[in-house]
Amino acid sequence: MASRGDASTAESASRTLVLAIDGTGRVVQCGPNARTVLGYEPADLIGRAVTDLAADEGKAKVEALLEALASGHEHPTALAVRRGNIGPDGEPSGGEGGTADAVVTAQPMVGAAGGTAPIGLLHVRVALPVSARYQDPALMRRALMDDQVTRFGASLDLDQSARGLVDVIVPHYCTAASVLVLESLVAADEVHSEAGAAPLRRIAVTSDDGNPMWTATFPAGEVLVYPEGTPYRKVLETARPVHLPHVDGEMSGEIAARWRRRPVRELLTGVSMVLLPLIAQDTLLGFIACTRVPGFRRFDAYDVEIGMEFATRAAIVIDNARRFSRERATALALQRSLLPHRLSAPSSVEVRHRYLPGSQLVEVGGDWYESIALPGARVALIVGDVAGHGVRAAVTMGRLRTALHTLANLELPPADALHVMHELMIELGEQEPHFATCVYAVYDATSGTLEVASAGHLPPLLAAPGGATEYLEVPPAPPLGVSGSATIESREFEVEDGSVFVIYTDGLVENRGRDIDDGLARLRGIFGEGATARPMEDLAKATLAGVYADHHRDDIAVLLARLRRLPEDRFGSWTLPSDPAAVRRARGLVRDRLDAWDLGELTHTTQLLVSELITNAYRYAPDEPIELRLLLERSLVCEVRDRSAALPRLRRAADDDENGRGLLVVSQLAHRWGSRRTATGKVVWCEQTIPGVDPEPYEPPSTWPGQNHHRD
Asked: What is the Cα 453 distance to its own chain's centre?
């Protein structure tokens, strides 16, 4: 229909008559299709002045056309032409033929002599009457097949492809159309063959007859099972086109009754309908319901053939979109399962995160984040990015995240943990090349220090309460898995209480239309003066402002942490001499501090645990001072620090052994225990739960775009 507005539509809804004009402005030759284009017999036009064919208001334009022919110039114009009274069937229609809008192009002939010899041609293109829109199968085929499939098949999105499909088939083939596909296909699952009883979803519907009841009665997005005895059920059961040249009132009433949808009778009475199955690789994906309302030529067998040729091509497009959706859903599900479902941190540290998968043009990536509470009021903050996209990148991300989570729980320093990760990536690269970037930071809430190591990653951002915002300068190192002689080193920073620490992946600051320096400047501006006083949720939202509309967006991972020290009244630290008497003093210090914290019920157990840990430290570092720390968090943590690098090992002592039972006692009484090396020795710690306090409380997150991609 010309009102749709593209070139192919206009061409398919028009016919062209060629007239040869002599020097006197009369028709000397006429195309044989004069009857179908203008309603005249060819003989009636020969010798007739061409100005007689134009309506009164168009005669001046015809004169301009004749002048163009005489001067040898080509000239187009739009005007109203008079129609004859000969109908398409060759019989007079009675009365005057009226007028028709036409585009007339004058084309001069080279070497024309003038006089009664032709001097040029007039190409008269007349829009078809509405009722004759589907009269010419050749035009209909060309309108459907000429690059239309390529146009609506350019998108791999199922809904967009379906909408493009119905916008092509209406108006070139029918006046109303719906695309229905199996519900399992929409769900990105395997397509299940359930014959006619399979649930379908209508993913696109349109009409151009001005009747809004089509979209109201057959709404897009509806999931349904067609009842038995209807033509819709037949096309599903046979996987063959169903052709209904004329649907009378009795048939439409029966369909409406079986379907229990009363408006169907009114809509389908008098229509001509064909249902075209969508079959790709011998699998039925759904069908296209095509309808011509009364007043238009009814579907015939040749129309069905043309429609099936179009449906075969359309099925390939739908199947490609289905396969892409399924692969993307698989990758998203895999990535969602590999990303953390909850983050942990000390009570003084507030953590927020954001994750967005890449746009459908970029696919799933390998970005990940992690926040892991460590003993001693410390937290590991990690963001990484595996190079590449798709399932392989997501699988590699899962491997690295699991390995790094284990290394964090082993309490390796950031640089050492990244070095182990580098060796792992080198090993994985022997099977398939991989590399990744990662930034690993550990914040100590008792000392206010932040230790950061980076492997090829973008610099972390630190915003201080005073308004100072800086990108931290961390010793550079190549990405994990890239061979080279550079070593991974860490750097320690003194952090002002209340500062906001931001780590992120490159998708946040870099895209096709923006330089990375501009992205870094934008991020720095978000965390400018006054930013640390804003709620963390507001800051998290601000980091992703404007990225959702980017159709070439890479996946994005952002981790924000407001770093605050543990209040001084929540921990105590004492230095004890390396002497057997230190055990008695430690027991007294523990009793006094637990009484101050109203935790007297834990005194006996804590004293026993501390006694065993200090005795162990005295045995392995007899000439060095011992440091004892108690920390009250969501749990009670006891730490004993000495100058020996030998880590304790739990073993089961024999019946006649005099030693070796201390750590066994600790493991039985404590909720958990562990050890870690320090620059000057080691720390052995144990943790006890506090009655009535959940050591790992779960706080329901607020809703934000993208959270459904990784949270159950």
From this structure: 32
